[in-house]
Amino acid sequence: MSSIAPAVCFVDVCPLDNLPLGMGRAFVIGGRSVALFHRRGGNLFAMDNACPHKGGPLAEGMLAEGRVVCPMHARRYDGITGECDQPGECPVRVHPVAITNGMVRVGIPGDGLASEGAG
Amino acid sequence: MTFMANGTLPKRPRLIILGNGMAGARLAEDILVLDREKFEIVMFGEEPHGNYNRILLSNVLNGSQDMGEIEINSLPWYKENGITLHAGKKVTRIDPACKKVFADGVVESYDQLVIATGSIPFVPPLPGTDLEGVFVFRTVDDCKNIAQYAKGCKKAVVIGGGLLGLEAAKGLMTHNLEVTVVEYNKWLMSVQLDETGGEILGKTVAGLGIRVRTQASTQALVGNGKVQSVHYKDGTEDEADMVVISAGIRPNISLAKSCGLGCNRAILVDDKLATSDPSIFAVGECVEHRGMVYGLVAPLWEQTKALAAHLTGTDPDRIYAGSKLATKLKVMGVELAAMGMISDVRQGDEVVQYSEPAKGIYAKAIIRDGKVSAACLVGDLGPAETLLGHFHKDTPVPTRRMDLFGGPLPQKLELSLADLPDAHPVCDCNGISKGAICNAIQAGHCTVASVGKATRAGTGCGSCKKMVKGLIEAVAGAIKVDPTESYYVSAVPMEKAILVAQIRKHKLKSVSAVLAQFGTSEDEKSKNGLASLLKSMWNKEYVDERDARFVNDRVHANIQKDGTFSVVPRMYGGVTTPQELIRIGEAAIKYNIPMVKVTGGQRIDLLGVAKEDLPGVWADIGMPSGHAYTKAFRTCKTCVGIEFCRYGTNDSTGLGIDIEKKFQGIEFPAKLKMAVSGCPRNCAESTVKDIGIIATEGGDWEISVGGGAGAHVKKTEVLCRVQSKGEALKIVGRFMQYYREHGKYLERTYDFVPRIGIETLQEIIVNDSLGIAEHLDQGIEEAVKGFVDPWLEREQPVYPGQFSEPIQVGPMYLAGTTA
Ligand code: SRM
Ligand SMILES: Cc1cc2nc3c(=O)[nH]c(=O)nc-3n(C[C@H](O)[C@H](O)[C@H](O)COP(=O)(O)OP(=O)(O)OC[C@H]3O[C@@H](n4cnc5c(N)ncnc54)[C@H](O)[C@@H]3O)c2cc1C
Ligand code: SF4
Ligand code: FES
């Protein structure tokens, strides 16, 4: 199974206007809890909405230089790579984002939560 | 101390020190260190204070420090050390024949006299210098007067573009004035810098928003009673609501002259600092030694050391052979160093220069006979240590001249520190070497402040503090070098006072605007800190960007470990009603709230509320926010007081409710908690609050500040007593506003109050010694007026998703149906 890359499936999430500037917003996309961020300056990124540390709601985190600061214990996660700023900590899973005709779309692994660990 | 059989002290020679400034007071200290018993010391100081650090006056002017912080020897110090100080007494005559000095109402006789009368500002003979609104800049009282007058002004002109003029300009900037600096020469700081250096400095200064006018010859100050404009010889003029003259200083030698002492430009002294009268000595800016008159503290302190050794007899042959002038300065955030006479270039001298105009960096050295005879640095002090070493020790310069400027880079500070020899000077103001500092660190002094106490290093201009820190780290491994420590927030490299001035000047009303203009990085704490500052500066004009706030401050509730929130409604003074309790109970049932708890702050907490339920809970309980989630005024605990308690002497619940109603929701640098107790039994625990009030047996209110009982337990210190609730509200509000303006971000009052000093606070808040009470009162009233209950956002969320639950999108089959 591991030779087959899990298909990413883009899902329409919301119009761009529904994303507050400089902040995150929580969505459940195909059953998966995702935090979607709208940076000042325009670009978007998405990641799982659960901090690998103790499950903090990352969508409520503040943004600083393209990283999300977890509201619970302030671990920082890179919006592009999902890497944590603390050495040895797990990264958070990030998801691709696209905008088509003003509609924000997020790419979610096609095999859903079951793919965790395989991809 | 040796006492005679009859209990009186043995008769000791009487030493009078005339002048209680940087040199006079330092001489007294130096003498005490060498021999406490030698003299009966009497001092005269025209200024009605103890001794303060004149170098730091510009910080008083710009509000970043208070008189208390720059004080070196407070009035009690003199008493504790057996010195009679006549503070506020101007000596009017010296009689060398009878060995007496005369001041208004006081005559004292001496065996030996030291004159340390310093300098007076030079006021050029122009028409109009006596107009209202024209100031000089020399004493702490000058600073207070300038600051007070600046309040009603828009435009200021500073005459003189030297060190002091620039310091004055910087101070005025923070009072929100348009400032023009007028310099007669072609460039700024013409004594310390050459033309290129001066021009680079000029650009940097202009970049800070100060207008610089060089080659301007002032002709008159013009106005009708009050100054209104400055006229120049070329026919142009500048509008000016106030003028600060800092056109140089003149040695203050009128007393010495009139009693017949030999004077030239200043009082003539020999290598033992003796004047033409063998019983009279002189030190400081008022002396001329080997043709030199000094205007910086380092030489004066070399003089006092030599004189003390000589006077006490500890080293009778000690002479003062003159000082080499070298100084590191920080003018308006621009790093500068100057040594020797940069304008003195002779035939055969070699001049080496390096410049990087775009970055405002410039370095120049004059090499004479293979040694550094003078140098100046602007913008980057990297090479300063190397240059100063060559300059002071006359060591041959490297054959590769470039290496003179290749000195340690700032970030390599610790490494290079370790390599320095023990004799290397670190604190130039006090002449303290690396070795002496390392000894102090090894003896257990592991903070910059305690090294300062032990060695004096860093207690002058403070520019070597970074090196002291580096040494502590190298030797003790304890302190981490953190250049951002003095900044208000780490993302903007500015102290609070400067930052506030810049924000005002550029009318920056949002966090993103401040970061765009001045930010060097971005982090969440800085955003929060800036949000708090901007809110307190602009009140209703503040442009509130929610992404600059922590989640608690966005949804007005405290986030819990499971992502739910808590709701703590305000209960003024801890007093509630059956109706409120019923509504709370009904809401708890309706929203399935898992815990209802009485808090340590005398109110009720509803814990475990889902974000989307917050608006509903707030609406159902119908009470305003208790701000338990933010850096704002929290609770005012009260006890039952006179209404029910048999000991109560005053209406503590009434005052507590008034306080909480008035100041609710106001934001502070950190959270602020209060309590009011009805008698000294203090059942509301007023003495461990940021502000605590206790009714006394006589029915007065005693107001005390700076307490806390969280991670640190600290008892409050008494600010004052007042008689009415109205007065109590006034003093509380005034203290609050002063804390809002001067507190560092996240600095609780238990750190703030000791930093400022309770006596200073009493002076400022109660006695209005700075004349800012009215301004503080207005500031807090504005904040009171600006209050809006944040829980009203329930009616109209301010950004999408503020109170909504996660939106479900996408087909469900994506969710792991294959598993
Ligand atoms: C609810 C309450 C405990 C309780 O159940 O009684 C409480 C709860 C919290 N306190 Fe407290 N403090 C509560 C009264 C106190 C008191 C007692 C008081 O106010 O009289 C103190 C000591 C007094 C003081 O501050 O001087 C207190 C000293 C602290 C401190 C230490 C502050 C310090 O500077 O030393 C913190 C940590 C901080 O602020 O950084 C803290 C932080 C917290 C936080 C906000 C921690 C957090 O960030 O999540 C807690 C929120 C719990 C939650 O999940 O909602 N809490 N906390 C109390 C609310 C009072 C209220 O009505 O507003
Ligand atoms: C705003 C400012 C910033 C400065 N910055 C720096 C700096 O960064 N670095 C640096 O090295 N130097 C700096 N200086 C210069 C430094 O402060 C002086 O060189 C130093 O204060 C001189 O010391 P002094 O004791 O000779 O004179 P002062 O400190 O002026 O003391 C003289 C005292 O004598 C008193 N006095 C005079 N006449 C009488 C009388 N008849 N009876 C009683 N008392 C009398 C005066 O009231 C005064 O308190 C600065 C000066 C100012 C004003
Ligand atoms: S003491 Fe305060 S911060 Fe600590 S667990 Fe209790 S409520 Fe939370
Ligand atoms: S839960 Fe995110 S840092 Fe602890």
| Gyration radius of chain A, rounded | 14 Å
- What's the overall geometry of chain B? globular
Q: Give the overall average pLDDT of chain B.
A: 89
Query: Which strands sit side by side, in order, in the main sheet of chain A?
Result: 2-3-4-8
So what's the oligomer here? heterodimer
Q: Please summarize the sheet with the most strands of chain B.
A: 5 strands, parallel
User: Please, what is the CATH homologous superfamily of chain A?
Assistant: Rieske [2Fe-2S] iron-sulphur domain
Quote the distance from N terminus to C terminus of chain A: 11 Å
What top-tier CATH class of the largest domain in chain B fits best?
Alpha Beta
| Class by SSE composition of chain A | mainly beta
Features:
heterodimer, A: 119 residues, mainly beta, Rieske Iron-sulfur Protein, 3-stranded antiparallel sheet, 0% helix, B: 819 residues, alpha/beta, Enolase-like, domain 1, 5-stranded parallel sheet, 30% helix, 22% strand, binds siroheme, binds flavin-adenine dinucleotide, binds iron/sulfur cluster
Descriptive overview:
The complex is a heterodimer of chains A (119) and B (819). Chain A is mostly beta strands and 119 residues long. Chain A contains no helices and ten strands. Chain A has strands at residues 8-15, 23-29, 32-38, 44-48, 62-64, 67-69, 76-78, 94-95, 97-100, 103-109. Chain A has a four-stranded antiparallel beta sheet with strand order 2-3-4-8, with no helix packed on it. A three-stranded antiparallel beta sheet of chain A has the order 1-10-9, with no helix packed on it. The termini of chain A are close together. The model of chain A is unreliable at 112-119 (pLDDT under 50). Chain B is of the alpha/beta class and 819 residues long. Chain B has six domains: 14-119 and 251-312, FAD/NAD(P)-binding domain (3-Layer(bba) Sandwich); 123-247, FAD/NAD(P)-binding domain (3-Layer(bba) Sandwich), CATH 3.50.50; 324-411, FAD/NAD-linked reductase, C-terminal dimerisation domain (Enolase-like, domain 1, 2-Layer Sandwich); 483-549, no CATH class; 550-630, Sulfite Reductase Hemoprotein,Domain 2 (Sulfite Reductase Hemoprotein, domain 2, Alpha-Beta Complex), CATH 3.90.480.10; 632-792, 2-Layer Sandwich (Sulfite Reductase Hemoprotein, domain 1), CATH 3.30.413. Chain B has a five-stranded parallel beta sheet. In chain B, helix 1 runs parallel beside helix 9 (297-312), helix 11 (413-419) crosses helix 14 and helix 12 (434-442) crosses helix 14. The interface between A and B is large, with 44 and 37 residues. Strand 2 (23-29) of chain A pairs parallel with strand 41 (807-809) of chain B, so a sheet runs across the interface. The structure holds siroheme (SRM), flavin-adenine dinucleotide, iron/sulfur cluster and FE2/S2 (inorganic) cluster (FES). Flavin-adenine dinucleotide is lined by residues 18-24, 44-47, 54-55, 57-58, 90-91, 116-119, 137-138, 164, 167, 252, 255, 284-286, 295-298, 300, 327, 329, 461 of chain B. Residues 18-24, 44-47, 54-55, 57-58, 90-91, 116-119, 137-138, 164, 167, 252, 255, 284-286, 295-298, 300, 327, 329, 461 of chain B line the site of flavin-adenine dinucleotide (FAD).
